[in-house]
Automatic annotation (TrEMBL), chain A:
Organism of this sequence: Streptomyces albospinus
Gene3D superfamilies per UniProt: P-loop containing nucleotide triphosphate hydrolases (3.40.50.300)
Pfam families noted in UniProt: ABC_tran (PF00005), oligo_HPY (PF08352)
GO molecular function: ATP binding
The protein, known as: ABC transporter ATP-binding protein
Membrane topology: Peripheral membrane protein
Subcellular location: Cell membrane
Residue ranges annotated for the ABC transporter domain, each copy included: 15-264
Entry's family note: Belongs to the ABC transporter superfamily.
Keywords: ATP-binding, Cell membrane, Membrane, Nucleotide-binding, Transport
Top-level division of the source organism's lineage: Bacteria
TrEMBL record, chain B:
Transmembrane segments: none
Organism: Streptomyces albospinus
Similarity-based family: Belongs to the ABC transporter superfamily.
Pfam families reported for this sequence: ABC_tran, oligo_HPY
GO molecular function terms listed in the Swiss-Prot or TrEMBL record: ATP binding
Keywords of the record: ATP-binding, Nucleotide-binding, Transport
Protein name according to UniProt: ABC transporter ATP-binding protein
Length: 343, 352
């Protein structure tokens, strides 16, 4: 296995101050507004956010699959194994994509070609990228299917995508992403469309393969539960910015941003029948008119005058932690009472 | 379900009694002369009661038949067999005027707030449409005021009455769907995955709204969802479905803290818990394989093909949904109906 000369722990991907906007008829939607993060080989970064937070758009920009127009990268750098991807030509970029980094999407049925057998789709990767003969490629396809846990792979290699269940299709997607042994995998809501019991199987498979091949993994999700199970580091996004980053245990134990805190308080827990849930008031902002100052201030129980005028920088909130809140210390220490009071 | 569940009988007479409900969808072959070659057994004999003012949660994975149950309850689907008794009257045999009168009292809230609202109708027309069918509820001149009241009840600005669905966010649309469900002041609302399509921060708002409406208007809910945490939060009693049958049923505490059916245990243990520390101390039961096709359910116990406890007996005899023998004498929380030959208590959800 090649790993592009990157060893465990070294930064594999370094996104710096990325900006993306969509030019639409209704105005310019600022989807990503200065996002920076790093992913090391063997590390899992979870990007958590609600719809419209910019989590998927950031990933699309990294993969180079942004719909353009209307989407445009307007600033920043995407350093992958030391090279700025935004400066590469189309052809070079295409080589990186697929071979060195791969993506897994939420909806496997619409991501696979319905008129080709899964064997042909998996084998094609080897024929195109590695110049293998069709027969040999077919053999590799069977190996891959076995590796991702598809029972009776040899018999099923000639089946079409619709003949597989949702969980099995997602395994085939994972097999395709892994085929060329990439260094980085971006998984965009990989288990959202699956049932809980199948969700757990697929997540376990993904984590196991990541360890085995020491890949970097970016897991994009809205589900606080899925993240807790697999991530090393979490980046929480809101209105196109990262509002908090922290190692997974610390984020759940003591969030340093009121938005994160609100999200954690607002989910019902399996362990008890709750009374009223804490609900973050209002709605996520319209990206064509993001509120001035801190974008979260209209919904925040801690908001004061400064929040309406000065956008908070990412304050260092401890080792490996950062929070884009003027009152991160207050949130970290005594936020609980404030939230109980706002309930 | 055995209705003798002492902890959970708020009223002596159930509002809704479902008995041996069955829905088979025929599988046909041929174009001109359609020949039935089999049937998808979407719902295959389920029974439960619903009391006034309570919430019954139905959980299960896709294909377990929970949505088909919902559709039969509101009359969108006609059962193949079995009874749905509303106030003692079997509504599956009704038609015409009598059916219309019953339907007024059993309304539905749908999952997808995007496709369940007609994009060409204003919010006022959408919420007021039930009054066209049941004009006795609101005289024509009174409707606009009623709709505005409803908008206010679900937390939307009454001035939005002339807007169109696309002008609202997902959470607001779901509120519109709820307002429509409330328009006829039903006694029962069947909610099929009402919060699944919503973002986390908005989901809490809608869950709270549903809870408030229940206490304000004394509504009974049948709350169908795949999200076990949401179901626990909102339900008084819970039924776990697997392949068209109820596997286990009881109060929230009985099902979540003292499950005795292996499927319930596996389902609960697979739920991702938003707390990395609790997660390290919990037991995970990983099921192998997928849910079998409802067109060819396994013989005997339907869960046996994925069950780690399965033995010969399970393939031959279908376990009935009743309190298992070993817990019959017990007065503890394990005393609840569970369709398993080898039921045993196992705690899989960590303490909150």
């Amino acid at each position: 296995m090649t790993n592009g000369g990157v060893r465990h722990g070294e930064p594999l991907l370094d996104v710096r101050d990325l900006r993306v906007e969509f030019r639409t008829r209704d105005g310019v939607a600022r989807a990503v507004n200065g996002v920076s993060y790093t992913v090391a080989a063997g590390q899992t970064l979870a990007v958590l956010g609600e719809s419209g937070s910019g989590k998927s758009v950031t990933a699309q920009a990294v993969m180079g699959i942004l719909d353009s127009p209307p989407g445009f990268v307007t600033g920043g750098e995407i350093l992958f194994q030391g090279r700025d991807l935004l400066k590469l030509g189309k052809e070079e970029r295409r080589k990186v994509r697929g071979a060195r980094m791969a993506m897994i999407f939420q909806d496997a049925l619409s991501s696979l070609n319905p008129v080709l057998t899964v064997g042909a789709q998996l084998g094609e990767m080897f024929e195109v990228h590695e110049g293998m003969s069709r027969k040999k490629a077919r053999g590799r396809a069977v190996e891959l299917m076995e590796r991702v846990g598809i029972p009776a792979a040899r018999e099923r290699v000639g089946d079409y995508p619709h003949q597989f269940s949702g969980g099995m299709r997602q395994r085939i997607m994972i097999a395709m992403a892994l085929a060329l042994r990439p260094d980085l995998i971006i998984a965009d809501e990989p288990t959202t469309a699956l049932d809980v019991t199948v969700q757990a199987q697929v997540m376990d498979l993904l984590a196991e393969l990541q360890r085995e091949f020491t890949m970097g993994l970016i897991l994009i999700t809205h589900d606080l539960g899925v993240v807790a199970d697999v991530a090393d580091t979490i980046a929480v996004m809101y209105a196109g910015r990262i509002v908090e980053t922290a190692p997974v245990h610390q984020l759940y134990k003591a969030p340093a941003h009121p938005y994160t805190r609100g999200l954690l308080e607002s989910i019902p827990r399996l362990g008890h029948k709750g009374r009223e849930l804490y609900a973050i008031k209002g709605l996520p902002p319209n990206l064509t008119a993001i509120p001035p100052g801190c974008a979260f201030h209209p919904r925040c129980p801690l908001a004061r005058d400064i929040c309406r005028t000065d956008p908070p920088p990412l304050y260092e909130a401890g080792p490996d932690r950062a929070s884009a809140c003027h009152f991160w210390r207050e949130t970290l220490d005594g936020g609980k009472e404030i939230f109980d009071g706002a309930r | 379900m055995a209705p003798g569940d002492p902890a959970s009988v708020p009223a002596p007479e159930p509002l809704l009694e479902v008995r041996d409900l069955v829905k088979h969808f025929p599988l046909t072959q041929g174009v001109l002369f359609k020949k039935q070659v089999g049937a998808v057994k979407a719902v295959d004999g389920i029974s439960f009661d619903l009391h006034r003012g309570e919430t019954l949660g139905i959980v299960g994975e896709s294909g377990c038949g929970k949505s088909t149950v919902a559709r039969m309850l509101v009359g969108l689907e006609r059962p193949t067999a079995g009874q749905i008794r509303y106030r003692g009257q079997d509504i599956t045999r009704l038609s015409g005027r009598a059916l219309k009168a019953v339907r007024r009292n059993i309304q539905m809230v749908f999952q997808d707030p995007y496709t369940s609202l007609n994009p060409r109708m204003t919010v006022g027309d959408i919420i007021g449409e039930p009054y066209e069918i049941h004009p006795e509820v609101a005289p024509r001149g009174d409707r606009r005021r009623k709709v505005q009241e409803l908008l206010e009840v679900v937390g939307l600005n009454p001035e939005f009455i002339n807007r169109y669905p696309h002008q609202f966010s997902g959470g607001q649309r779901q509120r519109i769907g709820i307002a429509r469900g409330l328009a006829l002041r039903p006694e029962i609302i069947v909610a099929d995955e009402p919060v699944s399509a919503l973002d986390v921060s908005v989901q809490a708002q809608v869950v709270n709204l549903l809870a408030r409406l229940q206490s304000d208007f004394d509504i009974s809910y049948v709350f169908i969802a795949h999200d076990l945490s949401v179901v626990r939060h909102i339900s008084d009693r819970v039924a776990v479905m697997y392949l068209g049958r109820i596997a286990e049923t009881g109060t929230g505490e009985q099902i979540y803290d003292h499950p005795t059916h292996p499927y319930t245990q596996a389902l609960l243990s697979a739920v991702p818990v938003p707390d990395p520390e609790a997660r390290e101390h919990r037991e995970r039961i990983l099921l192998t394989g997928d849910v079998p096709s409802p067109a060819h359910p396994p013989s005997g116990c339907r869960f046996r093909t994925r069950c780690w406890k399965a033995q010969e007996l399970c393939a031959q005899v279908e376990p009935p949904l009743e309190v298992p023998t070993e817990f019959r004498e017990s007065t503890g929380p394990a005393h609840h109906p569970s369709a398993c030959h080898f039921a045993e208590e196992r705690r899989v959800v960590p303490d909150a």
